[in-house]
Each structure stands twice: as structure tokens, then as C-alpha cells.
Amino acid sequence: MYASDRGSVASISTAIGGTEAGERQRLSLEVIAQTDDPLLAETSVSAAIAAGRAQALCEQIARRIQSKEIVNVTVGREVIDTVKMVKGQQRFGKLRIAATCAVRQP
Amino acid sequence: VNASQRVDDWLMAPIPRWRLARLQAIVVIFALGYLLVRIQIFWSLGRNTASAVQRFEPVGVWFWLDQPLRRDVWLALFVATVVAGIASLSRWLSRASTVSFAAGFLLVTTYRNSWGQLMWFENLTAVHLAVLAFVPINRATLVARCKRSRDTVTGWPMVICALSTVIAYCLAGVAKLRIGGLGWASGDVLAHHIAYSAARLQALGARSSPLASPIMNQRWLLHAGALLTLTLELSAPLILIIGRRRRRVAMAWCAVMWVFHVLIAATMFVVFPYHLAGLAALPVWWATRSEPETDELLRWPK
Fold first, then answer.
1. What is the per-residue pLDDT across B115-135, written as a single tens digit (0 to 9) for each?
2. Global pTM value
3. Are the beta carbons of B205 and A3 separated by less than 8 Å?
4. A39–chain B Cβ distance below 8 A for any pair
5. ∠ CA A46-A31-B36 to the nearest 5 degrees?
């Protein structure tokens, strides 16, 4: 367990919200995958991307968003320098986009 | 006395019946609680949605499956396992119920692990349940079984459970050296795992451990942590030998291993419930105390 070296750069499958001003915002586990388990959330996003269902997932996530600030959602693989992020030197990594969609406000 | 005689004496040494009964009861209660607390997750495995089916990668005892189980078959297996667990805690205790629960727990947790997320800590619970399924049957209430008495039984199930714990830790240490080499002791690999756990949580919008960031700046602490981890894991089998002569060494090892899991949970938010509950180390503690019940022990609160 924990035997291999992950290195400091990781690719994490996730979804990110975007505001009208072009800023990025983190979405919650509940919004991303309706779970409180990060492993399950990442697995479900990763599986959707691998199966070509990223667009459908993106739209599902968009429907769950309550915040009026967020106007769009991007699903993809975020390449992160984990050490920098933990130290607070990086907020977002480089996102390899698999799908984008708009949030339809009620 | 030759080596085989020593091993034989070690395995067959009598231990108090109540101690074995308590270990069996505690492990069964934990396993049953684990299944019930996570019932939503286990239940949802029967949905077999298109996306779930695509993620299905059967492992372990389910390696031969080419598609997920039918919903009714899966739910029947889960319910039967829970019923067998309850039966093995009751007066209906029988070899069939203890063996069925051990087998059911292995099947249910392995099936859960066949969807791309391996929970290796469940394996030790499954091994302990399997060994404890062969504890001599005592058809009495749970409380009566666990009550202190002068009855003794051969202690091999306790020793085998303890051996499986120390071997599991030792294998984890060997894997670190085999895959990571001596460089694992530098602390860099540990730092990357802590950073990854925290960054993944942040990327998925969850809170990460507040301890992760300060630890990243303490190189000496990471180095010491890595060295200590390797030492504790690789030396685990020795505890069963040394601990029989020096009980305090065994108690100290069990306590340190528990703290080790507390630190993993605190820094990475990765929880090993069986280990955190102290159940992985409990047989090691009790196996190093294999002398028959004494009057002094019987005076202890009844």
C-alpha cells in the first residue's frame, strides 16, 4: 500500500464551474457525483470521460447547480502539481477539457 | 525441543475460551456493522446501469464473471450474509452460520471491489472472519460466551489471526522496498501521497486535511515518518516472537500501529476502519498473552 511514487504531478478527473466573469469555481462532491466519497466521484467522472459520456455528465452536473454565479460547467482531466496546490501556491491546474455545457438558471 | 515442536506448542497452547469468543464476537460485530453502515453503497451495486456495467472489472473470487450479477441474486447474497452474521452472534450459532458469514463477507466485499476501487483493508477482516469461523462452537448467548471463566481452548485461531495481521503489514513494507526501493525512506514518496490525497479532495470540491500543508514544509518529519513506517511494517512478524517474552513490546507495537493509522487518517483523510478500531492489532496483543487464565486475571472486573 502506498508503495509506488505518484510523483508531484497528478491528473484528476473532475468538473469545474465557470462564472460570467470567466473565473473558475470548485463544485462540491454532491454536485459532481451525488456522493460524499471522493474516490467514487472521481471514478464516475473518469468513467464517463472514458466512455464518451462526458457531455451527458456535464449536463447532469449543470442541472444540479444551485449557485446563480456559475454559468457553465467544464468536465475534464485537471493536471495538478499536488505539492503546490497543497501549499496554496496553485488553485487550479491545467484542464484537459472533455465537455462543456451551460447552466440553465430556473 | 526442536523447531516443529516449538511451533506446535505455540499454536496449540491453551488460551481462555472467553478471549477467543470475544475476538470472534468483536470481529463479527465490526464486519456486520461495516456492511450495514455502507448498506446504501452495497445496495446500489444491484442497479446495473449502463455506466456501472462499463466499470465492472471482476477481481478475486469473482474473477470468472464476465458481467455483473443479476440484481435479485446480488441482493439475496447481501441479505443472506447479513442474516448469517446476525445468526453467528445469537444462540443459533453454528458452524454453518459462522462459515457462511465469513464466506459471504468475502464475496460481498470482493464484489464491491470489482468496480474499480480496491479496499484492501477489507481483506484482513475477511481473513480474520474466516479463521474465527473455526473457533470451537459454544451454543450460548453472546454475553455468556464472552463471560470470563476458567475454560480454555487451543489458541491456534488467535495465533493465525495475529500472524495474518503481521504478515499483511510485513508485505506492505516489502512492497514499498520492492517498488519504491530504499528511496521510499527519503520521505518524498510519502509527501507525494499526502499531497495527492489533499489535492484530489480539493479538485473535487471537498475539504482536505488542514495538517497536509504544514507537513509538506517539514522534510525531517516526512523522512522520520517514512523510516518509522518501514521499520514498523518490516519488523511486524518479530513482534509475535519478542512479544511473547516481553509483553510491553507487543503492547507498544500495537499502540504505535494504532497511532500510525490515526496519523494516516489525520493527514490524508484516508480511513482504515478495521485498523482504526484497533481490531487488526487486537489478536497480536492477545496472542502474545497465551498463558492459561490465572486467578489474578479472574479477579479483574467481571
1. 877 888 899 999 999 999 988
2. 0.86
3. no
4. yes
5. 85
